[in-house]
Each structure stands twice: as C-alpha cells, then as structure tokens.
Amino acid sequence: MKKENNSLTLIILSLALNKIYSNFKIYESNSSDENFYINFGCDEQVSFNDFKKIEKEMSKIISGAYKIEKQGKTYICNNIKFNGIDLDKKNNTKELKFFTLTSIGGVDNLGSKNNYRIYGNGFDSQNEKEEFLKYQEELRSRDHRKIGQELKIFTFDDLAGQGLPILLPNGSYIKEKISSYLKSLFFKNDFEMVNTPVLGSKKLYITSGHWDLYKENNFPPIKIDNEEFMLRPMTCPHHILVYKSSNRTYKELPIKYFEDAKLHRYESSGGLIGLERVRAMELFDTHIFLKKDQIKETIAQLSTMIKEVFSKLNMKIDRIDLSLRSKEKDKFFDDDSMWEESQTMLREILKELKYDFYEIEGEAAFYGPKIDFQYKTILGKYITISTIQLDFLLPKRFEITYKDQNNEEQTPVLIHFGIIGTYERFISALLSQTKGNLPFWLQKTQVEIFPINNEFHLEYAKKVEQELLKNDLRVKLDSSNERISKKILNAQKSKIRFQIIIGDDEVKTKTLSVRKYGQEDSTKMTIKEFIELTKKE
After folding, report:
1. Mean pLDDT throughout 459-486?
2. Which of 249, 302, 329, 363 is geometrically suited to a Cys-Cys bond with 323, CB 3.0 to 4.6 A?
3. Band of the pLDDT at 329, cuts 50, 70, 90?
C-alpha cells in the first residue's frame, strides 16, 4: 500500500508541476515503499520555498478527481505518461488522502534550462503522516549540512567553486585534532609519515592504470613545458615512488607510510552532498608494502586500529562488506588466479576475525578486492568510511621489488588502508552520528563562563578561567552585557559541554554553578570537583 500511495502522489505532483511551470518535462520517475522521486526540467527555478505553492496545487488536483488509465506498464493521467510506478487499486487522484514533499535537489544534464529531483510520500491516514514527519525530523537533526551550518564548521561558496568545501575555524580545529590523534596512533604502530606533491604527471597515472579506468573522475590535465600534470586523485602511485627511492630487503618489511593528502576528483554537481561528496578533499592515506605471509597479521593489526579510532570518537560502523570483482571483468585487472587468491584470502581473514560481513560483487578496486567498513547516511545509503584493500597489481606495474633471504628479487604486496577515509566524509558522519554533540576532546570550546554582573563577579570568573586553563581545558569567558539566559541559550545551541554561572553565592563560597549541555538544572561544586568531572568526559 505504501508504494501505491507514493505512486499516486508522484502522479499528482507531476500534474501540479505541469500546471505551475512552463516547458515542464519528466525525465525519470520512480516509487517504492520508502518514497517516490521525480526528475524533471522546466524554464523556472524551483526551490524548497515553492513547496507550499506546489502542495496547494496538488490539493486542487486531488479534489478534481482526475482519472488514471493503464496501458501496459505505462500509466496516463491528463495526457502525461508515467513509468516506474505501481497502482493496483487506485485509479483516481481523489483516492490520495495525505501527502508531503520532503526534499528537492539539482540534477545535471537532463536537457532543460533548470533540472531538479523532488522526493515525497503519500499516506492513508493523518497518524501515519505524523509518524513519518517525526521520523523526518529525527533525520533532519542528524543532517550534517544543517549541523555544520549551525556550529559554523564548514561552508561552500559558488565563487570558490561547486563541491569545494571551506572549513571554518571550528571545522579546521576538529580536523586538526583528529589528524594529531591519528598521527600519534600511527607512529605507535610503526608507520612513517611522508609528504608528496598535490600534482602528478599524467605518465604516473597511466602507469598505475588510474588514467584509463577513472578518466571520467579526473580533472583535465594541465600542460606546462611539454609535460602534462594532473591534480592528484589518489596517493598510491606517489607512495610507490617513495618505496622505490631505495633498495629494499625482506628485513625492512612491512614498510608503512601515511600522509595527510589533498586530492581532487570530479563529481557531477547533482551528486554533491555537503561534505559527504565533494570535489576537493583531504585523505588520511596509508600504504603498506609487505610479504605475502605478513598479510594476515597486518590486517588484524589494522582491524584493531579501526576499532580503537571508532571507540575514541564514539562512532559506529553499520556494515562490513567484502567487495569483490564482478563477473563482467572489463573494469578489473585481468588475472583470474590473482583475484581468486586475494578474494579467498580476505574472506578467510574476515572469518578468523569473527566479523559478520556481506559479499558484494562489482565493488572491488580495479587492482584487487577490499574490506569496506560502511556507514549508513540519513538518506539510507551506505558509504565507505574505512577500507582495507589488497593489491598484487600495482607493485608489478611499477616494478618494485625487495631482496629475500636468498638475495633474490621478489615483488611485495601492497595494502591500501584508509582508516577514516577523507576528513570531509568522516566529519559528515561524525556530525550526523553525534548530532553535533562532539566528543569532549574534540570541542574547540569545552567550557564557557558567565559572570552575572561584571562589577561584582568578573574578578572571580577570571580566576576560575585561569585555573581551568592551567588544567588544559579550553575555556571562553563571556563578559558581554548580554542577558545570562541568552548566553546560556547560545551556549546550548553551540553544544558547548559545560556552562559555568558566577553570581554572588559562587563568589562568596568559592564554588561554581555548572550546567551541562542538554540538562536543565545546574549543580554546585568546587573548582577541583569540576576539573575531576571533566576528566570523565
């Protein structure tokens, strides 16, 4: 019944759009139990602000009782044809009881002046609609775009360019804290840091195979002095050159490199989603060169590191995929024995590590299978956060070797390891999972102090500030003339973990009145007690 309601709503929306906008044209439509969407073009610009006008026209169409006819798999209403929908019992627009439009976004290259996709839902009852709207509100509370704007973490500006995120001071602080933590963790696990250029020659990516297989995702080459350069889409070829800079022996392996690498990849403008999908990104990227008999132990180590990072950040993995080659082999390196060996190896390792996982055909990298640790977005899509990729191919293409115990040359195996993926995508997942209530250690401002009256309370507030700063807490003292209630409200909106109010009683007793984010009541405590409280966060 849900799909039928969504199909009927799709038809009614299309009729409404056709009445409101000139040169309206449907390019694609689809309905399911979850929702419906329609891709369309028209001459005018359409936005979320137009939903009231559209919904009013939809209500008129429902009242107009337009008949719906079926011809094969096609439905026709008021001379407009619809495919990708399913109506069993309902054949008149008046049979829709309740509906809502949920979102609108731009779509590329449909052929009209302005191109859009609208999502929506139809319902049998007001109660069903209200339950859905409550669920949508929960999703909105987890929308990293909304949270990022409220907490001033990132912005976009068309003057800079579509899909090019700008991290604001709060976002830059979060990114640098995560980076420092990861670097410390990786140094403890015997990784070495490298720095490689943001550009690479076209020859480099022809050698690796990325040029031929990912041409549509690369920015066009830049020609300078008879040489062609590319904005770097990935770092593995550069890290292979680091390995290749010296002669290697088996005693050195495994060799582990990491880098904060700035990358650029072309994404269609219709596919850009906040920080989740961008054109400029920074990847905490890792490559490990090792012997085949070191693979199992190394992947176990990487698995432990992933668990530690996600525990530290209070985040969760929603699903684990073993991404395999598809039966259509065009996009994958042609070596059946290599694929069989590497896929079997990863499958056995996952079982030994006691992971529940899905096997997904066609999602491997062109050079080998991978383990993808997935996060479910608010739109219901699974995207990769962490990944472990097994690669027997690129070491051969670049002809890198090491000397074994018998002083004979052997080809190492390469593991591509992304512990958090790109910072941009990871921060989008972090904001969504925490609703912006970040782990205490990541907050740029952890404590805010409010003296009620500067004449009588500011001196003590400054002493409290200095004591907290001595204990490595990040503190802001607000001595403005704004009302205390407004200051507390702003601090709550900014999700600052602790607010300290200083009044007559606090000055007299040398105590603090402490309010924690999300709580209504304040608690009296000494400075020492408060410092001990923050250590538990």
Report:
1. 94
2. 363
3. low
